[in-house]
Prior knowledge:
By secondary structure, this protein is α/β, with parallel strands linked by helices.
Amino acid sequence: MRVLWTLPYLPWPTTSGSKTxxxxxxxxxxxxxxxxxxxxxxxxxxxxxxxQALMPLVERLIVLPRRPLHSPLNLLAALNxxxxxxxxxxxxxxxxxxxxxxxxQEHWDVxxxxxxxxxxPFERALQASGLPFIVSEHQVEWRKGAACQDRLPLxxxxxxxxxxxxxxxxxxxxxxxxxxxxxxxxxxxxxxxxMTGRPTQVVVNGVDCDHYQDIRFCPRSQRLLFVGxxxxxxxxxxxxxxxxxxxxxxxxxxxxxxxxIAGHALPDHWKLRxxxxxxxxxxxxxxxxELQKHSAIFFAPLRQSGGxxxxxxxxxxxxxxxxxxxxxxSGLQVRCGEHYLGxxxxxxxxxxxxxxxxxxxxxxxxxxxxxxFVRERHDWSVAxxxxxxxxxxLASRPVAIxxxxxxxxxxx
Length: 412
């Protein structure tokens, strides 16, 4: 099939779960012989390593610049009731709209739009063409801003609430227009279906299981590992909870325990706030395997649901025993006690870590169960097959303007 795939960022390097998902799904569909044109709007220029990573996967790679975050247009757009901030930042781009309109003159079996917040430049052209298309939504976006409300200055919270209201209307408007909507988990699919009143397809997040198959956890290391993209407040909140409340309790029982924190956009001021030699500030690593094989437990004290969870799946694929919360595994069909251990209170998590580090056989059981679960349900080959099925269904739909435009809100 010929696929027109749009992204509001370059999917390489894979510094976030979303980028990891995009890169591996592109690779999976390319390996199945599909011809992909990737249209991206990026805040960073295309580098030669990114070009070398992406060009083998696509027939055409089109990268257009995104205006700076602090552009006056973004500030003016904040006053527009129709568009939430994230939509304005990633939209209102005539050069992107014109390029998309030109591409629509070609024949496509599938048009895939990634994220509702990137949809604005494509809306009018898709409505006019009547072509069926997919929108892929990695989480319910309007809830994301609400989850960060308490972390904002008091003066900014009313605007954040207003922007959340705008995004809820925008997200509903976008997803109702799509011929197919794709979510990353049954949990997110149920929430999206409540918004649209229609079924939502699931294309799971995945792992390259072969990449991690030779890794073995190291119980003697006493090292906990957390990995995340720290541009997201959920990961920031998890580390703050861990270092303020959970790890101090663990250290009372076992002062030798260490915590390695890896991931993109690690805040510099954290090193001053928690000046402790038992905390290892690793930052972003393109390959986690060396760190994983010197770690005992993957620890993810997340208190927000939804999202990608790819780093947790990668930890399971590497055989690391996982300690997390119910929110940390939301959307994954795992069972506490079989695939992971955890709790929702800091005291429970601290006790679980302390006990598990003294139970190597129990750690081995969790390691083996996690590997089997990921191999069977979350290898990237599984996800690519699911997406290919959605593409095949979309390609078989007749072009019907009334079908695509049913239920949309009027443009303002």
